[in-house]
Amino acid sequence: MKAIATPRRPRHPLAGLSIHLGLLCVSAGYLLPFLWMVSTSLKTGSQTQESPPRWIPHPWQPVNYVNIFRHPTFHAVLYTRNTLIIAILTVAGTTLSSAIVAYGFARIDFPGRGPLFAIMLATIMIPFPVTMVSVFRVFRWMDLHTAMWLGPDNFLQMLGTFKPLWLPAWFASAFNVFLLRQFFMTLPKELSEAARIDGCSEFAIFWRVVLPLAKPALAVVALFSFMGVWNDFLGPLVYIQRPEQYTLALGLAAFQTRIGGTPWELLMAASTLVCLPTLILFFLTQRTFIEGIATTGGK
Amino acid sequence: MAFISPWIIGFAVFTAIPIGLSFYYSFCDYSLTRPSRGPLWIGLDNYNQMIHDPVFWKSLGNTLYYAAMALPAGMLVSLGLALMLNANIRGQTIYRTIIFLPSLVPTIASAMIWLWMFNPTEGMFNFLLAKVHIPAPDWLGERLAMPSLAMMSVWSVGNTVVIYLAGLQDVPRELLEAAEIDGAGPIRRLFAVTLPVLTPVIFFNLIMAIIGTFSILTIPYIMTLGGPNKSTYFYTMFNYDEAFKYLHMGYAATLAWVQLALTLALTGIAFLSARKWVHYG
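^ Those are the sequences you sent over. The predicted structure of the assembly is below.
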């Protein structure tokens, strides 16, 4: 949020009070699921079935958070590693490629720029489920053709690897391009012109002048794409079959369905752990984060 | 031009070609259960099969039913919360943070939390209801599952609230004050000044909500698997099952195209209606 022009204090004392009351109720409601999750994650198996349930378990069992790492069917460390591999490659790819493309749209005049930009914005509106099946077909088609030339299981093999999940990120995402372009447009043109007079190539201007200035915007893109990967369930569901390749989201879903009498205390401990990185990231980068979301709304 | 080439390649390979291919497949009998045979042109047969397929109508009806609850609820709650959070009151930051937090929870985790809260025997909701002597409903049973999922969606409107809050900073204070001097009460000011200025933001959020609501898949996939008795079987799930469970690539492509067409039609209607109610200052 930008510097907020402090709105007037509600004049009527009752107005302020009723807003407080309303927000208190809503806040309580919004917090309840979190509290219930954390509370359950500290219970013993039999305590989760207690009626009435206790909010503060006694005795509490924090060892659930250790046990979740030792569980024979939930390989937390492996899943985290897989998720991080995909996340790092996605974040690096989308930040870099989107910045390059955004620079092209923001600073370079070429025929058809307007219509191309419009097409790009329109692709934001295509829902993922619409393309998911045919993108899968494209990867299969690629595999058939690379296998003909390079033999089976070559380094370009897509399906069965993490590539379908992170490779598309290296070809810019419309949303990130939009965000970065908005930012590049605000940078003074004189800077790049000065660099051009000094003999810099267009790419050097982008790399040495514009990119360093764009760090806050790049941070937003990196942050959101990391959250996107951390959150993603459908992508891994479509492209990952072998349990040793599961991401955290897939692992958690499988953990819940595989066992009949769900050990809720373990599931909630795992859920809490899955929430933690996003919550920590948010609290560390609050301002960037909120400004980023506000920007997406056309600010 | 060289700078935008990564996007051009990506657009071709991951958007244009797949959409084109799926348009072609939508007119083909193309089943991966018979790997030796490629796509076979059958004209409009898939579309014909679709309009006679009770599962198609069921899943489309389910999706519309869900949208009819989740869309207005999400729009109203997020706007209402933003208006309340915009008031200058003590603890504003804390309220804002609390209401934003749920949208940070990964979908998988929120599915787990709500599955546990909806649990018919040990869940929190039924415990709270028992306290006030209301018989415990089966939240994810055939009758209530859809409303329950819609209720759940309201929990994570934080992003939308933030966008509204940003929009509210643009409401000119002079206008509000002028209206007040002219004797307009708070309600009148809301409808005559604040909301009209906010309409572009409302419109943006509406478009995003339409696209998001019609592509919901993760939550029902984890929580109900479309059940019980197909009561939460969403259109996207039907599409997913046809493609990856039954490997009917031709039919799945038809369904994907119909979804694209429906989404475009709905956003198109929204854009057309925008002329009537969206004010671009």
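Residues 76-107 of chain A form the longest helix (32 residues). Residues 73-258 of chain A form a domain with the MetI-like fold fold (CATH 1.10.3720.10).

Shout if you want it in another format.
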